[in-house]
Design a protein that fits this description.
By secondary structure, this protein is α+β, with helices and mostly antiparallel strands. 51% of the residues lie in helices and 12% in strands. It has eleven helices and six strands. The chain has a four-stranded antiparallel beta sheet with strand order 3-4-6-5, covered by helices on one side. The chain has a two-stranded antiparallel sheet with strand order 1-2. α3 packs across α5, α4 packs across α5 and α8 packs parallel to α11. The protein is globular. 28% of the residues are buried.
């Protein structure tokens, strides 16, 4: 489900008006105006490309977007300004690495409204159903529901990730690709520890730019906990959640250590917290 902007709606309305006016006294003027309306559709398609790039690569600067998409800085900023006015993206100020003191760079990410517009149908109904399930059968029933949901994901992903071999970075990349096919807009970034830091601190950061169940996970954090357990078993090493969309982060970020041996083999037993109200051991830092 893509966000619908006022530009597109206005464009369709003007197109109908122009068609009606062609037969009138000012037909030639209207015809020339109508001929220009396809440019409105082209603007929408270009704006969608900018939005998708922000979703996949954000936080990202306007200059980086221009390089990525081949647009001029003025064109990128025009589309970013419109998307910002529509409420689907927002600005995140971040210091640039190695830039020293100074004003933080403007980087763009999807807003909560933008996230909510990307295929979150029926989540209100699902949220009410899970609330009712918890009232009737208790919080463990909600957790069991989450375990069963992510169990299906684990069964589908396991053969593909196992085919990537035992190396943790390769397994993390395979997991990222599988998640992206399911609409999570995932990516990985390798972080190599350099001296004097020990090599054991090397890691892969797995980021998910979209969460189809963000609204559910915000009310039921156990979904994030169970998903983290699945990731840990799939890659074969203990992982830690650094941020989640459900708790206000701009992306879901999972820290996957690569510089030390796996704590257990792939697909080991899941851990079960005793109380769903406990702070998750997987979420080490709230954004």
């Amino acid at each position: 489900m893509r966000p619908t902007s006022s530009v597109a709606l206005a464009g369709r309305g003007r197109s109908r008006a122009a068609a009606d006016a062609v037969s009138g006294p000012a037909g030639s003027v209207a015809a020339r105006a109508a001929a220009a309306f396809p440019a409105v559709d082209a603007e929408e398609r270009t704006r969608d490309r900018v939005l998708n790039a922000v979703l996949e690569h954000g936080p990202i600067s306007a200059a980086e977007l221009g390089d990525l998409l081949g647009f001029t800085p003025a064109a990128v900023r025009r589309h970013l300004d419109q998307l910002s006015r529509n409420g689907v993206i927002e600005i995140k100020r971040a210091a640039r690495a190695g830039a020293g003191a100074g004003r933080p760079a403007r980087r763009y990410v999807l807003s909560s409204q933008g996230q909510s517009s990307l295929g979150n149908d029926y989540l209100d109904i699902a949220t009410l159903a899970l609330q009712r399930l918890g009232e009737i059968a208790g919080p463990e029933a909600v957790r069991q529901f989450a375990v069963e949901r992510f169990g299906e994901m684990e069964r589908r992903y396991a053969p593909e990730i196992d085919a990537a071999g035992p190396e943790i970075t390769a397994r993390a990349q395979a997991l990222s690709e599988a998640l992206s096919r399911d609409g999570f807009v995932a990516s990985t970034a390798s972080i190599e520890a350099r001296a004097p830091l020990p090599a054991a601190l090397s890691s892969v950061q797995l980021c998910q730019g979209h969460c189809p169940i963000q609204q559910l996970a915000a009310q039921f954090p156990v979904f994030c906990d169970v998903e983290t357990d699945v990731f840990s078993r799939l890659v074969g090493v203990d992982v830690r959640r650094l941020s989640t969309l459900a708790r206000g982060g701009h992306v879901c970020t999972t820290h996957i250590p690569t510089g030390r041996p796996a704590a257990r083999g792939p697909h080991g037993p899941a851990t079960t917290p005793g109380n769903l109200d406990e702070v998750s051991n997987h979420l080490q830092e709230r954004p």
